[in-house]
Amino acid sequence: MIEAAHLTKRYGAVTAVDDLCFRVGRGEVFGLLGPNGAGKSTTIKIFTALCRPDYGECFVDGLNVAGSPLEVKRRIGVVPQENNLDRELTAYENLFVYALLHRVDDRRRKVQEALALVGLEERRDHLTHGFSGGMQRRLLIARALLGEPAVLFLDEPTTGLDPQIRHQVWDIIRKARLDGRTVVLTTHYIEEAEALCDRVGILARGALIALDTPDNLKATVGQYVVQHVDPSGRLIQQIVKSREEGHRLAGERNGSVTVRKTNLEDVFIKLTGERIE
Amino acid sequence: MKSPGWYPIFLREMLMFKRKFLKLGYLFSAMVVPVIYLFAFGLGLGENVRIQGGDYLTYLIPGLIAMTSMNNSYAWVASSLNLNRVYFKTFQVLVQAPILPTSIVVGEVLSGMVKGLFASLLILVVGFLTAPAPAVTGIFLVALFLNCFLFASLGLITGMITRSHEETSTYNNFFIMPMAFFSGTFFPVDRMPDLLKGLIYLFPLTHTNILIRKDGLDPEGLVSLGILLCYSAVFSFVGARLIRNYSE
User: Fold this and answer.
1) Closest by CA position to A161, among listed A184, A141, A182, A146
2) Is A84 on the interface with B (CB under 8 A)?
3) Average confidence (pLDDT) over B207-231
């Protein structure tokens, strides 16, 4: 459904995206996981025709983004990292203008349905500058879904949201997938990638350093982590292949020792030596 | 029914303009500067100064209308585009929509023109109330529309190339404000030193001021009309190129 072929983007001396290659299948939820500055947002911007790569190509539904931008834009919906709603327009007006831009048929009904989907019907005539972060985020998702896109791009969709709103957003993303849409999301939340994504690409300094299902990525580095605090107060972690090996190692340590399952952050630390922040 | 690509952009700007317009602050701020000029220059000098065989207010009011149309068409587009691109990021929504770059140009420029024409209308009304009514001829309207179009297009260029809102103000102070004073708004250009005249005749507003005061299209008016058309074509072409090549 979408494909990146050797995508490269530089800003001066900084390589934001470095020879990125991956494919995402139809109906898949694909996550790009990495710390701030890893190149996640730039990748989304290239796919959504907001940014031109210095090298390489990308495709949406077999269409080259650079060669057929209008056709690509008809097939995508974008939820940006930053709120880019018109603050001086109401929720309804924001969606209505977007529906006009994307030539949505039966606009008034679909705008109303989109507001209902994200629980904002009662705020339809309120200016969005008074909206909370969670309401803005839900309205951005409603707007992105209005054109019934084949591919939904979400850049850090739940950053800064409280857990309850985060789960509401996750439910909307799951519904988009059930509706047959391909979903590409960036996140630096481990639990988000694990909860939503069929496959995850791990980005570090613009390069894709691993790509697989969350379970396979964890199996690659080891299924369990043994954690203990050393006498200087430092947290020491060691990834092991099995629970038995973890408990054997825990028995050899003094003090408070924990054995837990590996998560994607452990994978990231193992691969890069850095934490996701 | 399918609307043209520029319509949602125009509608969006008009919805926001409607909200501003309904606040009295907008009406006041749109009128305050030209009205101050009208009273300070017009009523102060009006009885003692005669220009081109007529009284000063008859000369001044078309100039104030040209200046107001320039200021409003330019500033609204430049400021709104810069803010939407750099701070609010709403320009991304337009770039990511399946519309041609020229639709963005048309939508933004048309909305700038409406704002410029509206502010000009306010000055025209004040002019009718305080002074001999200016003759609103076909040439007057052509000059006014072209002026709004070319300065809205110039505003679009400024809005696309400036990296901050402060930078937009710098362009305003160095290019737009001098043009307002030296292009025949308050006094005829032929009273300026020869050395400056060449430069002043490069300003588009000079030619709007020439054309807007014409009763008929004489050779001088034709030249000014041609120059305004050239500026309009160049500014809108450059604006369209900047939007087509936009990349974050």
Assistant:
1) A141
2) yes
3) 93
